[in-house]
Structures are given as C-alpha cells and as structure tokens.
Amino acid sequence: MAPVRTTKAVSYFTATVTAAPDSPYWGAMNSRSRTGTGKEALGGGEEETRAKPIGGIHVQSTGTPVGQKDNKDQNKGRTISKQQTTGKQITFENLTCFYTNADQLKNKLSELAIRVNEIKPEIIGITEVKPKTRSLNMKPQEFSIEGNTDYCMFDKNIDNNMGRGMILYVNKLLQPKEVRLETNFQENIFIEVPLNVHEKLLIGLIYRSDSGSEENNNSLRNLINEATSKNYSKMIIMGDFNYPDINWETWNSKGDSTESHEYKLIHCLQDNFLSQVIEHPTRWRGNDTPHILDLVITNNEHIISSVDYQSPLGKSDHNVLIVKIDCQKSTKTTSRTRKCYNKANYDKLNEEINAVNWRQELKEDHTIEENWELFRNKIHGLIDKYVPTKSIKLNKNNKHNFPVDQDTLKLIKLKHSLSKQVVTSSDPEIRRQYCKIRHKVKAITRNLRKNYEQSLASKAKTDPKLIWKYINSKSKTKVEIGDLYVNPKDTNSRKATTAKEKADILAKFFQSVFVKEDEGESPTLADKKYHQRNVGTENNKRAYN
Asked: Of 285, 476, 501, 538, which one is least surrounded by beta carbons within 10 A?
C-alpha cells in the first residue's frame, strides 16, 4: 500500500503547487504574487486605456467596447467598465518615502501609524528599531503598523542580539523583492521595485554605528560599490551614516587626513558618481550642535523632487525625512474568490456524496492516477456546487483603526513647525514649546491605542473576530517567497522569478524527499477476522464501565 500513498501524495502536491491560474489552488499559491506581463499586466487585449487622477494617483481602466455603456461611480470620481472584473490599473506618478531613526520604535508605533495614515507613503524606512538595553528578543510581528496591511515588511536583526535592527515597509502594489548583496555589512536591507520592462528601482536602508570597527567601515564602502555595480537605472540609499564631520555643502571632511573614514566615504561616492541630497541638519539633542547624520544617496539627483524635514517620532532626536521620488510605476489591483465553508450546504453535499456509486466510478482497469483524478474532480465539483464564494479585493486601502480627530493632527503639524525652528534658532523658549507639544502628542497617541485596545476587549464576547484579528496582526507576518536558484547547489545559476518557476522548483524538491519504493508487487496483508460487538446491551455497558 505504501507506493499507492506515495504516488497520490506526490501527484496531489504537484497538482497543487503547479496549478494553472484557473485552478482552485492558484489563489492559495499565488495570493501574494500579482506581477502581470505584457498586455495582461496592462489590462489585456487591444482595448484603449485612459487614466483619471484620484488623489494624486492615476487610475487607468479598460476602454469600453462599442455599444456598451459604462457604470459611473461619481463618489469615487472614476469610470468603471462592466468588462473590468479583475481589477483596475493604477499608476504612481511619484513615490513617497518616509525615513527616520526611531531610537526604539515599539513605544512610537501609535504616532507612526497616525502619520503614515496621513501621509500614505509607499516606502517606509526605520533604523534603530530595538532599544539599546533589552532583556528579551523581539519579533518582527510586534512592529506591524496598526490597522494597515498595505505593506510588505523586510527586517534585519530584529529577532537576534545583533545591532539595533531595521525595518523597511514597502507598498505591496510596488511588487518589491529583496536583493541579497554579497558584502558582509552588519545592518542593511536592499529591495528592488520593477518600474517597467527595462527599468528597476533599487532601494537601500543602512545603519552605521558611530562605534563600528574598521572592518565594518570598509564593508560600508564595499557595499555601496557593489550596489552601484548592479547598474540599476534608479537607486536610492537612505539611512543613518553617523558622519557628523562631513560638510555636505563643500563635500569636505575636517582635517587634511586622507585616511579618515569621512574622506574615504566622500571619495567612494564620487568614484561611483553618486549624489547626496540632504542639506539641513537631521539630528539634534539638547544644546548639541545639529548635524547631518541621516543621508539620502542616489545615482540620479534629478529623480528627487523634494525633501521635507518633519519632527521626530516621539522623543527621538532624528528628524523624519519625507522624500518624493520621481519615477512612474504602473500596477494592477487584483481580486480573488474565497470559499465560504461556514455557509456551505453540507446536508445536500453529503447526500450527493453518499449517492455516488464509487465502485462504478473508480474502475479497476484504470490506473491509480486516473482514479485519483476522477475522485478529486468529483469532490471539487460538489464543493463548487454547494459551497458559496465571495470576492476579496486585494491591495485595498485600509482605514486606520484609531479615531484620530483634527485637533491631534493639528498638534502633530505644530510639532513639525516647532522642530524646524529649534534647528535654526537657539531661543530656549522655542525649545521649551517644542518639548511641551512633543510630550502632549506622545500622550495623546498612546491614549488612542489604549482606548482602542480597551474597546476591543469590551467587545470580545459579542464580536470575538475583532480582537482575534488584532491579536493575529501582532503574532503573524506574511513573508514573500524570494527568487530561487534554478539549481539550488549552484549559486551562479539563473534565478527563478515567476510564480510558476518557483512552484515547479518547490514541487520538484518536495517530490524528491518522498521514499521511493522498490518496483514490483506490493506486499499483501493477511486476512484478519473482526468480531462485531453490540455495545448497546446491558452486559457490554457494564463491562465497559
């Protein structure tokens, strides 16, 4: 019997993993892989396309066939064709990047969630995520943004004792993929975003400790050299480099030494024809002189349309940088169907299953695979018949959970304004006002989270789904399947990038670990007689008691 089980298991897994797009398995395997190619990615067919702006984002829908009217959704300000059932084409005219050094993020998540909901950046980079002193390791799930599932999360050194940790959140619509560089630098994350057929954007996040070793400083320059050598058409590297002694107006370092780390970094950037666009101090504390520690490096300074210096998160001493990147990205919102098993008609389903004559359906002259396919198709046909489905929109905008009022938003804007004045003025009164507003914003945002969690707890019995959704958001993360080597034993082999290629590689691997039985007849089991016992009699009841 072992070969039968092995053959079925391999066949079922292969059918599941390498399923076609119209298969019921495709939604499970490819729920997070939505990269289209050719005309399918652009809406399909020869139909004319058009774009209409919605809040800065252009929504491009499929043209209407001749003789067919459109359904106009005036509330959303766009036109939707009746033929458009698989999603809408969205074009990002520019990308907004939110970066800061948080100096531990856990106690600032509430303010981060409010500001992200207000700005709606496509890219969020945070360095120094973990506190300086900690007794327990942290998990990436603890840093999910409240009420927002629009982002893929890439993290480094969160669940170990190395470094301060960093996180890069990237909008799922950008279809980001992590890029592994060979240079061994302690804290860095690189991801790529496909812009069009010929262009890709490389985004890097770096943290360099000011107490780092000579080897780590050399690795930083080697990392920049390697990233530049990849020849991406557009590249952005942001992070806390901790070089306060560099004058970025003149691109000079203090002193005449050509062996200083500052001098070597400047020449590394110049040798790679890179630009640094931060011009004003990004870090200040107490009476210390403000410095430029956080940098934004690019291979094309013309793609940086603006840089806004906002107030730090919480009590951090690093400004938040809002960087606008000029690069167009088109993608498509998708939807998929999900089975509602809790609403299935199990009585009818069981009735039809019991009515099937399996001896007649599964014939002896068929192979195991043929009988398995007949059985599987019959079961799935009944499931499709008696289990209803619902359509789930992916990549939809999430509404923030916190009921943020306009007064709170005004306080945050006032905090931004005062932080800019603190950097340029030595007036102690301005600094005192800033500290007062900073403490007030911190208290309000924490209370918002506290009140929200209390409201969930009060509804735990009447609506348990809400609290479990919140708990799961803090205990689970969805990780993308990265590119896989076609030959796992050869790191120089080509990488599989499409969903089908990855599925084939995984199916081949799992198939290889099954035990291969010797060819020949399967062993037969001796007949064994079973005695039926009537457990309903009084004697047997007493015997069992």
From this structure: 538
Number of folded domains that form the chain? 4
Distance CA 358, CA 350 (A): 14
What residues contact residue 146 under an 8 Å CB cut-off, 6+ apart?
109, 110, 113, 400, 401, 402, 449, 452
> Is residue 443 assigned to a domain?
yes
Entry pTM: 0.64
Q: How many CA atoms lie within 13 A of 147 on its CB side?
A: 22
What pLDDT is stored for residue 373 in this prediction?
92
What's the pLDDT at 531? 63
Instruction: List phi, psi (to 5°) of 169.
Output: -95, 130
Closest to 208 measured CA to CA, from 182, 173, 243: 243
Using a 10 angstrom Cβ sphere, with 0-12 exposed, 13-18 middle and 19 or more buried, the burial of residue 357 is exposed
* DSSP 3-state of 189: strand
Residue 204 · residue 189 · CB < 8 Å = yes
Do 127 and 223 lie in one domain? The reply is yes
Say how far residue 17 (Cα) sits from the centre of its chain.
Answer: 22
Burial degree of 202 (CB within 10 A; 0-12, 13-18, 19+): buried
Mean pLDDT by 10 residues, the chain (545 residues): 33 34 36 35 35 34 35 34 46 90 90 89 94 80 78 89 91 89 92 89 94 90 95 94 92 84 93 94 83 94 92 92 90 77 92 90 88 92 92 56 77 87 81 86 85 85 84 67 77 78 87 76 71 54 45
Full domain range(s) for residue 238: 93-331
Which positions ≥6 away from 317 have C-beta within 8 Å? Answer: 103, 283, 284, 285
* Amino acid letter for position 528: K
Q: What 8-state DSSP symbol labels residue 283?
A: B
Q: In the numeric block, which tokens belong to residue 455? A: 């409201």
Q: Quick one: pLDDT at residue 345? A: 93
Give the whole-angstrom CA distance, residue 274 versus residue 412.
Answer: 34
3-state secondary structure of 207: strand
Round to whole Å and give the CA distance between 234 and 237. 10
Handedness of CA 518, 521, 522, 527 (dihedral sign): negative
Task: Give the whole-angstrom CA distance, residue 533 versus residue 16.
Answer: 42
Q: What six digits make up the tokens of 429? A: 């009164």
Domain boundary among 304, 331, 358: 331
Residue 396: per-residue pLDDT: 52
Residues β-bridged to residue 189: 205
